[in-house]
Design brief:
Low-confidence stretches: none
Largest sheet: 5 strands, antiparallel
Strand content: 25-35%
Order of helices and strands: EEEEEHHHH
Number of helices: 4
Radius of gyration: 20 Å
Distance between the termini: 51 Å
Structural class: alpha+beta
C-alpha cells in the first residue's frame, strides 16, 4: 500500500478481547503508522491480563500478532453460528421463559454434540 491508497480497515474493534503469543488482553487503542517500504500498518494498544492494580500494563501489537478470543460467556458459539448472523437471544428475549428456552434448545441442537441427546 502506498501513501495514496485508502487506509486499511482494522480487524479488531476497541474493547475486543485478543490473544497474542504470551497471553491475552483487551484492545484499548488503534493506530495506523507508516512503517518500512511506505506500508501503512495497523497497530493496537492492548491492556494486558491480568490487570495490574498499581498501574496499567499496555503494549503495542501489529495486527498479525493478534487473534480474536471468543466470548464464550456472553456470546457462546452454539448460539451465534446461525447462517443469518442473528444471535439466539435477539429472538428469545421477546418470548416468555418457557417458549424462549424451547427455542434455545432447538436453535443449538447439534452444536454441542448429538442433536437428539441435546433435545
Amino acid at each position: 500500500m502506498n501513501k495514496n491508497e485508502k487506509d486499511p480497515e482494522p480487524r479488531f474493534q476497541l474493547g475486543k478481547k485478543v490473544r497474542f503469543r504470551y497471553g491475552q488482553g483487551e484492545i484499548i487503542g488503534i493506530t495506523r503508522n507508516w512503517r518500512v517500504n511506505d506500508q501503512k500498518q495497523i497497530y493496537y494498544g492492548v491492556e494486558l491480563y491480568p490487570y495490574n492494580p498499581t498501574g496499567r500494563r499496555i503494549k503495542e501489537f501489529a495486527e498479525d500478532d493478534l487473534e480474536e478470543v471468543e466470548d464464550t460467556i456472553n456470546h457462546p458459539p452454539h448460539y451465534t453460528k446461525h447462517p443469518s448472523g442473528v444471535e439466539c437471544i435477539q429472538i428469545t428475549e421477546h418470548m416468555n421463559f418457557n417458549l424462549g428456552n424451547a427455542i434455545k434448545y432447538i436453535w443449538r441442537a447439534g452444536e454441542k454434540g448429538d442433536a437428539v441427546e441435546d433435545l
